[in-house]
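Project standup — Tuesday

K.O.: blocked on the structure for the chain from last sprint. Re-posting the sequence here as requested.
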Amino acid sequence: MEKKLLLWLHGMGMPSMGIYSYELYKFYDVENIIRLGSCGSYKKELNLFDILLVENSYTEGNYALTLNNDICHYINATPELNKVIEETAKNLNFSITKCNILCSEVFDKYMTSVDEMLLRVPKEYDIAGAEMESFALFYNAKLLNKKAACLATVVDTYYSNEEASAEDRQNSLNQMIKLGLESFLNL
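H.V.: unblocked you, prediction finished:
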């Protein structure tokens, strides 16, 4: 069976990811989506340009409630798809960190208090960082019986206030991109 790869820019945030992934799954028979993107880190042990493989996504938002009348704020990636990515990373000798992530609706730098927001996140979720799309992607995949994964490269860190420059962001995501593409070939 011939594999087809679709690369697309989904825009920013859950509404944009939600629309694109829902339509790709529902109307275009896409089975697997691997999101590649950037994230911020909330863990001291994570460094700029570390690659995160998201296992679970937490949101304070109401994406699931609005879409499906479901009070859901925590959802997992597809374990089978994550396993393919893990094996591919191992074969490429790429280091990845499996983690849980916050799917936020606001950039950290715009929040009046990141500390207060982090206090609201249930401690048992052990959130490693933040991005803005994974929850909608994972929720749509589960709702439509499809598969979804998320790889994210750390481009800023909360504890050290380190931040990648625009040029670094442009050039430092190549390893994550290669991992995503090679993982697709291994599906």
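K.O.: great, moving the ticket to review. The mean pLDDT is 93. Helices lie at 14-27, 63-68, 79-92, 114-120, 134-143, 166-172, 174-185.
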